[in-house]
C-alpha cells in the first residue's frame, strides 16, 4: 500500500493547488465546512461531519441553465461554467451521496451541468474514525466505500494509508514523490453509534405502513422549514424560474434547490396542491429515501449522515420514525 506521511499532507495539497481548485473541510466557529483552500494548513481531515455536504460543488444552490437573446440572430447559451476541482476529505457517507446523485442525474437522461462538473472532479476521501451522535451510516452500509473515489486516505497515526480508486488517482500518486511504499494499513471499523435502524425489507415495510398514524404525529410537528432537504447530501430536487425582459426578447432560466417538505413543492396551476398538508410532505421525504428511491435504483436514498436530524428545529428524526413504524 502507498503511504503519505501527515507531515507531507500540506505539501501534497499545495501541489494539488497548482492544477485544481481545492476544496476541503475547514473549521468554522465550532463546526466544519467544505471550503476553498487558500492555505493548506487550514485543512482538517479529522472532523466529525460538515454542516453542509459537498453537493453544492456539483449542484449549486442556484444557477443559470439557459440564457437567450432573440435579436437579429438568435443566441442561446446553456453551458456550465466548469473548473477542475479536487475535493479532499470526504467521508465514505458523502462519497456514497455523490454516487446516489450519479444514479439520479446520470442514469436515464444525464444532466449536462452535473455531468460536466463530475467529469472534472477529483475525489480524495478519508475514512471517518468516530461517528457523532446523529450518524447512522453503520446501519445504512455507508460507513465504508469501495468505489466513487480517486484516492482514499486511512488514518494511521503519523501517516495515511492510501487506497487508489482510479487511473487518475494512480497517476497522481505516481507523479508526486511524496508517497512511500509500505505495509498494508487496515480500514477503521466504526463503533459506538447512538442511532441505528434495521434496513431489512424496509422499503416494503414503510409502504405497508403508509396509513399508520405515526406519520401524523411527526407531520403535525414539521414546520416545513426545508432545512432537512437543503442540508441533505442526496436531495436533488430543484425548481426553475424564467426571467425575461418585458418584450420576451431576452432572458434567462435559473434553477435553484427545492424540496418536498416545502408547502408549494407540489402546487400546480389553478391553486391545487398534491401535498397540501404537512404530513403528506414529510411522508414524501421519508418514503422517497427509504422506499421509492431503493425501488428505482436499488440503493437507499439516505446515507445515514444524520445532518437532517441535527438541524431539525422540531426534533424530527428519521431513525425514530423508522423504528416506531417497524414497531
Ligand atoms: S427540518 Fe424538521 S421541521 Fe424543518 S422541514 Fe425538515 S422535518 Fe420539517
Ligand atoms: S435523509 Fe438525513 S440522514 Fe439521510 S442522507 Fe439525508 S440528511 Fe443524511
Ligand atoms: S423528493 Fe424530497 S426527499 Fe426526495 S430528493 Fe426531493 S427533496 Fe429530497
TrEMBL record:
Residue intervals of the 4Fe-4S ferredoxin-type domain: 211-243, 292-324
Superkingdom of the source species: Archaea
InterPro entries on file: 4Fe4S_Fe-S-bd, 4Fe4S_Fe_S_CS, Helical_ferredxn
PROSITE patterns, alphabetized: 4FE4S_FER_1, 4FE4S_FER_2
Any single Pfam family the record assigns to this protein: Fer4_22
GO MF annotation list: iron-sulfur cluster binding; oxidoreductase activity
Protein name: 4Fe-4S ferredoxin-type domain-containing protein
Taxonomic lineage of the native organism: Archaea, Methanobacteriati, Methanobacteriota, Candidatus Methanoliparia, Candidatus Methanoliparales
